[in-house]
Amino acid sequence: MTRGGLRHYISGMTDDLPDDDLRLDPDFAHRFEAQQRPACQLYLISPPAIDAGFRDSLARAFDGGPVAAFQLRLKGIDEHRIAAAAEPIQRLCAEAGCAFIVNDSMGLAKRIGADGVHLGQEDGDPRDARALLGPTAQIGVTCHDSRHLAMEAGEAGADYVAFGSFYPTTTKEVRHRPEPSILGWWSTLFELPSVAIGGITPDNCGPLAAAGADFVAASGSVWNHPDGPDAAVRAFVAALAR
Ligand SMILES: Cc1ncc(COP(=O)(O)OP(=O)(O)O)c(N)n1
Ligand SMILES: Cc1nc(C(=O)O)sc1CCOP(=O)(O)O
Ligand SMILES: [Mg+2]
């Protein structure tokens, strides 16, 4: 994918796909995907709370290398305050060619003109998000460790499915621990991109990319990196290129 976001990634991938029968043949799909699927890329998740200096931290992260998408994930904060905080961050993402995704709220995504929204299982129906945000919006859905939820999300028109938490994380209380093989299963059968999330670092992202993740999402390992977010992004980009 270029740095244009998840939507570009999807259309770039699907242009030359064969017909549905061939797509469902796992052997063929596996060989096809091996040739066609772009390398795994980085999806940044904000810290759960930010201050006025966060825009500079994000700019520093972008200095480290290409970032496909950025999710504004602020928890327990009033939407008016999130909207106000979002503006400079959103502009920076646009300048960097990075998709700007709002967590949890399709209404907020609409209000501020975000590139898309990430919906958990309790955050609303992807069909409603599509109706509200339109055909170009990038809609992601949390699927935990569930093949069933992922197929439902695909049916509902999601642009990506997210599996996690692959590793222990202190960013969020998590109850699900998928095996990396779910990423391979998904990528073999479906063209829709997958995002792997949860405790992912430059040191442990390799097996998830190798298993078939199209994106790895990371928060703590980037914002808490001892050498700064640019060093973290640089290390992710190097690890994902291997
Ligand atoms: C890319 C991505 N994947 C999963 C999540 C988790 O969403 P959700 O289950 O709604 O939990 P919260 O993030 O809202 O606490 C995500 N945000 N992004
Ligand atoms: C927001 C989120 N969702 C998860 C899931 O499993 O759905 S894990 C997670 C936390 C991601 O942050 P970190 O990279 O610091 O672990
Ligand atoms: Mg949510």
TrEMBL record:
Chain ranges of the Thiamine phosphate synthase/TenI domain: 42-219
Record-level GO BP terms: thiamine biosynthetic process; thiamine diphosphate biosynthetic process
A single cellular component GO annotation: cytoplasm
A molecular-function term among this protein's GO annotations: thiamine-phosphate diphosphorylase activity
EC category name: transferase
Pathway given in the UniProt record: Cofactor biosynthesis; thiamine diphosphate biosynthesis; thiamine phosphate from 4-amino-2-methyl-5-diphosphomethylpyrimidine and 4-methyl-5-(2-phosphoethyl)-thiazole: step 1/1
Pfam families: TMP-TENI (PF02581)
Keywords from the named record: Magnesium, Metal-binding, Thiamine biosynthesis, Transferase
Name of the protein in its database record: Thiamine-phosphate synthase
Lineage summary: Bacteria, Pseudomonadati, Pseudomonadota, Alphaproteobacteria, Sphingomonadales
